[in-house]
Amino acid sequence: MTSPRPALDLSLLPDGGVRWLDASGPNADVVISTRMRLARNVSGYAFTGRARDGERLRMLAQVRDALGAVPSLRGSLLVRLEELSTVDRQLLHERHVVSKELAGLDPQHPIRSGAAVFLGESVGLLVNEEDHLRLQALRSGFAVPQAFEAVHQLDHELGSQVPYAFHREFGFLTACPTNAGTGLRASVLIHLPGLVLTKEIGKVLSGLQQMGLTYRGLYGEGSEVVGNFFQLSNQTTLGRSEEELQDLLVRVVRHVIEREEEARRVLVRDAGYIIEDKLWRAYGTLRYARSLTFDEAMNYLSGVRLAVGLKLITGLTVYTLNKLLIFAQSAHLAHLEQRTLTESEANLVRAKYVRQALVSEGGGVE
Amino acid sequence: MICDTCQERDAVVHLTRIVDNAVTQLHLCEKCAAAKGVETTVAVAQHPLGDILQAVQQQASTTSEDAAACSFCGATARDFRATGRLGCPHCYDAMEKSLRELLRRLHGSSRHVGQRYDAPVTHVATPKPDSIHDLRDRLQRAVETELFELAAELRDRIKVIE
């Protein structure tokens, strides 16, 4: 048996990697977070998937050497993913700090040498993901301009130190042509229980697809929609400027928020006591259940979140609910317990964690 | 994941459908998917670009681009079809014609109108062009992919540096 690797010290992460959960941003009761991501590749190397170990490591070294002249990442923490245990990599993925592919959790893409992330105060830089570099900024609430400004500044600083692959006609070149051009994926994580309950969601989702946006689940590409949380982002990256792509997202999301608020009003007006009963039952389950699967927890949390939004439940903050979203996941529970958990053990620990959070953070008083 | 219909075989087709304003996810094996009239081929299941790629490549296959390998990384159009990912930035030049068509289908345009970029001319962080390590890695890859002309050229360049 190999000796266990040292566990990741989460206190080293700037803001624990979860400041985006603090519900301080605009429209935070509906929009959990805003993420801006730029895909970039360093010229002179094959793309990550085709590169050999040495190329990936040299590219990482080149980027690391350049960071002295990149103020956005001054004092950042470098995490080498290949040095971490699977559960720690899972933990970073659950915190939305690294993608599934970079964390080597995707069966198609085992962990790569040179897979790394630089975590700064307000931005992150993923190295050796599908593209050499993924620059990202994550903000609480609906904060498109703020998040873009942060990632744009990092891009400007880094691009004047490291030569990016850029094509006169096609723009920034990426391993997958779906990201070429601006390389910008502008997205929000949004909670739409009203539209789901009123069965309006299908119309809204197909409408936003016609507008050039796409939707995914909580964890981005390939993930299923759970707990009525949707990730909305631009479908195309080429042929529109960065400003146009941001405007599109802002315009459409603003409209979706209005539709969600409208749906909530309709629910209260037409089905007041049914909804109230349903949401209190969700709260009751979370408050007293002894075993909760992740999907169950997410679905009940969705109900409680709606109840807080409708002011049916008071004294419980959106921040507490956001934290539960992240901390009730398997790797976080394993980290909490300092041991690996079977699925049924995780369900017990999850129920206990949720109960304690609801008791200590108050709420539930009529 | 097991097929939703037969509950026996592995699901290879994952459909998100919108029926009566409700989102449903359907996971099907190839056989049940075919029975439901969902067309599948191995290429489609491999990556989301599958069907578009095939259509574009079929159009472009009459050109010489299909057989040509990228002179930098040795990737071919066939590699791209299989993985959905290009080998390196130079592949965009090597497969320019078919990629332009693909980009148009994917994005509605192949012309970047966003931020322009000029790479730093010379800087401490800029690598020495063609470092011996990079050339050796490229040589290794050329040999593995049986691109012997490229391999010979790289070997000569390594000799000069050594």
Short description:
Chain A is of the alpha+beta class and 366 residues long. Chain A has helices at residues 53-66, 86-94, 144-159, 193-197, 201-210, 242-288, 294-309, 318-327, 330-337, 343-360, and strands spanning 31-40, 77-80, 105-106, 109-110, 116-119, 124-127, 133-140, 166-167, 171-172, 184-191, 213-216, 229-234.
Low-pLDDT windows of residues of chain B: 40-46
Oligomer: heterodimer
N-C termini distance of chain A: 55 Å
Alpha-carbon Rg of chain B, integer: 22 Å
Major beta-sheet overview of chain B: 2 strands, antiparallel
| SSE ordering of chain A | EHEHEEEEEHEEEHHEEHHHHH
Largest sheet of chain A: 8 strands, antiparallel
Largest interface: A-B, 56 and 50 residues
Molecular structure report:
The complex is a heterodimer of chains A (366) and B (162). Helices cover 42% and strands 15% of the residues of chain A. Chain A has helices at residues 53-66, 86-94, 144-159, 193-197, 201-210, 242-288, 294-309, 318-327, 330-337, 343-360; strands at residues 31-40, 77-80, 105-106, 109-110, 116-119, 124-127, 133-140, 166-167, 171-172, 184-191, 213-216, 229-234. Chain A has an 8-stranded antiparallel sheet, covered by helices on one side. Chain A is globular. The model of chain A is unreliable at 1-6 (pLDDT under 50). With 162 residues, chain B is mainly alpha-helical. Chain B contains 8 helices and 2 strands, in the order ββαααααααα. Chain B has helices at residues 30-35, 42-46, 50-60, 77-83, 91-94, 96-107, 132-144, 148-161; strands spanning 13-19, 22-28. Chains A and B meet through helix 1, strand 8, strand 9 and helix 5 of A and strand 2, helix 6 and helix 7 of B.
Structural topology:
The complex is a heterodimer of chains A (366) and B (162).
Chain A lengths: L30 E10 L12 H14 L10 E4 L5 H9 L10 E2 L2 E2 L5 E4 L4 E4 L5 E8 L3 H16 L6 E2 L3 E2 L11 E8 L1 H5 L3 H10 L2 E4 L12 E6 L7 H47 L5 H16 L8 H10 L2 H8 L5 H18 L6
Antiparallel strand pairs in A: 1-7, 1-10, 2-5, 3-4, 5-6, 6-7, 8-9, 10-12, 11-12
Helix pairs in contact in A: 2-9, 6-7, 7-8, 9-10
Chain B lengths: L12 E7 L2 E7 L1 H6 L6 H5 L3 H11 L16 H7 L7 H4 L1 H12 L24 H13 L3 H14 L1
Antiparallel strand pairs in B: 1-2
Helix pairs in contact in B: 3-6, 7-8
